[in-house]
Specification:
Blueprint (H helix, E strand, L loop, with lengths): L11 H23 L5 H8 L3 H7 L3 H25 L3 H14 L16 H23 L9 H11 L11 H14 L16 H8 L2
Helix pairs in contact: 1-2, 4-5, 4-6, 5-6, 5-7
Length: 212
């Protein structure tokens, strides 16, 4: 018999946690659709909470953006863990890429160098990077991922597909993203033996952008 599910948290702490998650999801939506110049009042409105609730949790817009970055890296890490749990290394890698692209990971790139990096951001980023490295290494060992593709290549690919994609009438953005991503993923397969142009991107160079 499986263990019973843990009881759902109730009371003020549970309500605060739900409000906080609502704010993060609202921030992701608002900043994706309106850009990072959007006012925090738009975030509060979209989350359905008052400005007082927002400011009790995040004293400044920068604090909200920092928490959004942590939440995003936690999602990346969870997607990588799910990918590693997949029996098939290629399916595990592609599911990771699709999940990260679908929640809008790429929208955070303009924040590099624009906000201070907190210890929580660094810790979340290092964990996500470590798990992504394991996922890519496993696909390499299985000879399913082309040998000259690095984890940073994968991250930048996710970044490109994690941004809004214009869709024509009658088609959803997610449908267009899925189609184009399927084309791109085929290019990652090991049977593609042509050399990639240039040197692989350096993770340290991109990390330095956040610390300027």
């Amino acid at each position: 018999m499986s263990d019973p599910a843990p009881p759902r948290k109730r009371g003020p702490h549970a309500l605060a946690a739900r409000n906080d998650q609502a704010l993060i999801e609202a921030a992701r939506h608002v900043f994706t659709t309106q850009g990072f110049d959007a006012p925090v009042s738009a975030v509060a409105e979209h989350a359905g909470v008052g400005m007082g609730s927002l400011y009790r949790r995040y004293r400044t817009k920068e604090e909200l953006l920092q928490r959004l970055c942590v939440d995003s890296m936690e999602r990346v890490a969870n997607a990588a863990q799910d990918g590693l749990a997949h029996e098939d290394p290629w399916q595990g890698l592609t599911s990771y890429i699709r999940k990260c692209a679908s929640f809008g990971f790429g929208i955070l790139a303009p924040l590099a160098g624009a906000i201070a990096v907190t210890p929580e951001m660094t810790q979340a980023s290092e964990r996500a990077q470590r798990l992504a490295d394991d996922l890519v290494a496993r696909a390499h060992r299985a000879e399913l991922l082309r040998a000259d593709v690095s984890t940073m290549d994968i991250s930048l690919l996710i970044g490109q597909f994690g941004r809004p994609i214009p869709a024509p009438p009658g088609q959803s953005e997610e449908e267009i993203r899925s189609r184009l991503l399927t084309i791109a993923l085929d290019g990652l397969k090991a049977h593609n033996t042509g050399s990639l142009p240039g040197e692989p991107p350096s993770a340290r160079q991109y990390e330095a952008l956040w610390n300027t």
